[in-house]
Amino acid sequence: RPILEVQNLQKHFNLGNNKILKAVDGLNFSINRGETFGLVGESGCGKSTAGRTIIRLYEATGGKVLFNGEDIHAMQGKDRQKLTRNMQMVFQDPYASLNPRMTVGKIIAEGIEINGLYSGKQKKERVNQLLRDVGLNEEHAGRFPHEFSGGQRQRIGIARALAIEPQFIIADEPISALDVSVQAQVVNLFKKLQKEHGLTYLFIAHDLAMVKHISDRIGVMYLGKLVEVATSDKLNAKPLHPYTQSLLSAIPLPDPEAQKQRQRIILQGEIPSPVNPPSGCPFRTRCPHAMPECAATMPPFKEVEPGHFAACHLL
Ligand code: SF4
Ligand code: MG
After folding, report:
1. Is the predicted pLDDT of residue 245 greater than 80, yes or no?
2. Range of the domain at 73
3. Cβ–Cβ < 8 Å for 35, 8
4. Entry pTM
């Protein structure tokens, strides 16, 4: 069975004055052991909220998240702690997510201590090993986060996430705050660690070009909903949803001949407010193919081809 199953997951925020922000509004997808699932969408589409709700930094408003078949949101106390040992998060901002008053060694060791994994000399060795695993070295253990570059800080964040040997890591835009020159290095580090540690990733990003390069399968989000899920190859070769088609059309192709053939699909208008989403299909205010039916009813998220899901009345 999949390592993670997300079933009709919802996270709504009550803003007062009868306003409800439906940041995540009914997600369905699963992630197989050892794979990288990319969750992609424009800023504000709810992808970070989805990540945080899956790992239970937020309590879900509705739906279920099964991890190895167990309902995460029903877990309490010890079980919950055991779960958090198996799931870790790497955050977008390596500047904000590391405590500036703690040495790097302490930051990495914290989870090891809380979970009572190693102590004394073994703990120190474990920290040194983690530093080497992420391309740093043991001399870095005594230094503070501000002494490091953005890319190095993200390596520290990754070492911290790995410290307690999780099976599953949610990486929320882990490279978007970094210089372009170091982004590829950090992506390669994620790949290397996946092989070495048998990790499963939920990789959240706004940049489809990057996600398609690193993911086995991809989910495309729009206004709190998944509009398409497929393998990276299928999504790339035959995107079914008009929103995915527009995202892909913006990515330059390496082959100049193919690029000449490519029609860029420019979307009109802004993303509507998730507090006040359109009726029917959430994408209809920007969709080049919108029909009257699209305003009336919400298209079902259906399996159009084996393993290829999309929500559009055209399908
Ligand atoms: Fe466009 Fe209608 Fe399909 Fe929505 S359901 S993506 S508006 S064609
Ligand atoms: Mg975000």
Report:
1. yes
2. 4-240
3. no
4. 0.94
